[in-house]
Amino acid sequence: MRVLVVGGGPTGLTLGIELARRGVGVRVVDKATAYFDGSRGDGLQPRTLEVFDDLGVLDAVRAAGAPPAPLRAHIDGRFAGEHWMTEPREPRPGVPYPNPWVLGQSQTEGILRARLLEFGVRVELGTALTGMEQDADGVTARLATGEVARFDYLVGADGGASAVRKAIGVAFPGTTDETFRVLVGDVTAPGLDPSCGHWFAAADHPMAGVALTPLPGTGQFQFISPLGEGDDASLETMQAALDRFSAGVRLTGHGWSTVWRPNVRLAERYRAGRVFLAGDAAHVHPPTGGQGLNTGVQDAYNLGWKLAAETALDSYETERRAVAARVLGVSTVLLDKYVEGAADAHKRGEEGFGLDITYRAPDATGTLVTGDRAPDAPLLDADGKHVRLFDLFRGPHFTRLAFGAPAPDEEHAYTVLRPGEEPVGERPGDGRYVIDAEGHAFTGYAATPGDTFLIRPDGYLA
Fold this sequence. Notes:
Blueprint: E1 2-6, H1 10-20, E2 25-29, E3 43-44, H2 46-55, H3 58-64, E4 71-75, E5 78-83, E6 101-102, H4 105-117, E7 123-124, E8 129-134, E9 139-143, E10 148-151, E11 153-156, H5 163-167, E12 174-176, E13 182-188, E14 197-202, E15 205-215, E16 220-226, H6 235-243, E17 253-260, E18 263-266, E19 271-272, E20 275-277, E21 283-284, H7 292-309, H8 314-340, E22 378-380, E23 386-388, H9 389-393, E24 399-403, E25 413-417, E26 433-435, H10 440-444, E27 452-455
Parallel strand pairs: 1-2, 1-11, 2-7, 4-14, 11-20, 24-25, 25-26
Antiparallel strand pairs: 3-6, 4-5, 8-9, 9-10, 12-18, 13-16, 13-17, 14-15, 15-16, 18-21, 19-20, 22-23, 24-27
Helix pairs in contact: 1-4, 1-7, 7-8
């Protein structure tokens, strides 16, 4: 099988890894002539961290990034207190990564590119898609290099202005508000403490201020502020905004910057024949809530295993479009609070973490059913070594758990035993069983002896 992924951002890179590690012949092309260099989507949500665990990049992401920092508020030049956008949470047996993680998007992309390269796949820069046609057997793609190539499938992960989406004629309804603009950029501020974020504002309108949040490993901060009429994305504009609030902060340089307008859109379809849409090509979000990059990565994670096996392909749109619609709603509510100046506009709860995403049927009932996220749990393996359920799930395979009963004679099938129980029909040490020493697996799956669960490659119950 040959698949062309158009777009070398986080969504396209995740899909490339998912396909390449399953032996699919994949190419990832991008019209840009250089890799993106900037923070943009710098908030990685807990469910995305679980995806990165499975992809084999989590250690690198955690080493390069940092947990979210507290935000110190300065009103009219005076310190007014310290706040958390998200209250730190302790890991739980079923949730090993309960908190978001901060890492600039270009750093995340670099880590994903390195992982993709381990499978022998490079992002092909300067290679725009200039045309395509599809038939019952495949897709013919024309590239800016002059190449014409044939693929079994094509995936558009090429952003909100997606050439792929336009080529297949999929509508992209939604709204764009030109009356509200936000300046976002990466700045250097030598006098600011990088161990925390900073909020500068005026007492008569405290929510219309400037936020500066640290970007781990760069020595920079991400600058965010409403933009006035006629203002641009220059360093001078950023400095003037700070000066209005008696911040006493001097900016000495900046890198990537952009002027953002509320743009909320959802593609009417995610699939047209052998062509699929993922990430911003399928949905664009307000930056509030930090959902765009995360939703795109999880689109790719859902589609990758299905595309590689050519199975359940229609379920990709069914499952992921509903998630995007819900996430757009959450992000829009947060944006409205920000525009209205609500006191809690910067507070974030677990609704954006992605841990409650489910693909269960609308009429399904029960604690854990088909379509729900499969929780983690600490275990002991047959040799008494500490392992986790996520260790068993890691990789491009399905995993079967048989609680208190012999596991089927198939790869990646395990009997889950309580302490003191002996495996039936298994040789000690053969690795076909695990011990739920603390009872968290039985509890997390609401399992009774004889229950079996099949976990999909993307970590949801089949």
